[in-house]
């Protein structure tokens, strides 16, 4: 019986178990997948598998990530979402091969994010959503390769201009934060609507006919948007078979 006040022991991961959890991704990368295994403590044995390209420890009960995680020098993809982590180690800044970092749905505060994050010069995606951040770490503004940033479901009341100035930013999720004005997040997103006009390749790499087709498709889409009705439509509940007793009198409205 587990004594009151103590954390559950969790599943013990051995080196043998970990080796059997290595998968090859469709693009030939080695992924160590230890997600959803009831792990409460970072398994030190996996440091001997530091040649993997991807590490998934999501959906466990891990509270602390050790400094030794920096031994994964080849790691390009790190998923730690849905744990109990309240702080990231400073050594994470040494993992300069990282392209993807997901630490959403944890217990992170702004103070729990080390300044050393600004050393991740190659990172493309950072998800910090569903945490307890009350301000955006200034380190994000130094990550010029960022394409996607998740800051949703935190305690933010403002977004620094340095985020909107990230040169390669394509997607920013800041939904469900307590901004002072309801439309502040929309105003901020408007400032990066230049992203909608980006091509998947640079214009100079397109032949003239292809570029014209892209431009025509964009013009057609804009025309359709401008013709869209501005008045809200009534909701249609197509899956309802029969109304409940309270709705019988207004069937025509909701059908």
From TrEMBL:
InterPro entries: Leu-rich_rpt (IPR001611), Leu-rich_rpt_typical-subtyp (IPR003591), LRR_dom_sf (IPR032675), LRR_domain-containing (IPR050216), LRR_R13L4/SHOC2-like (IPR055414). It comes from Mesocricetus auratus. The keyword Ubl conjugation does not apply. Keywords: Leucine-rich repeat, Repeat. Gene3D superfamilies: Ribonuclease Inhibitor. It holds the Pfam family LRR_14. Residues 69-202 form the Disease resistance R13L4/SHOC-2-like LRR domain. PROSITE patterns: LRR. This is Leucine-rich repeat-containing protein 18 isoform X2. It comes from the Eukaryota.
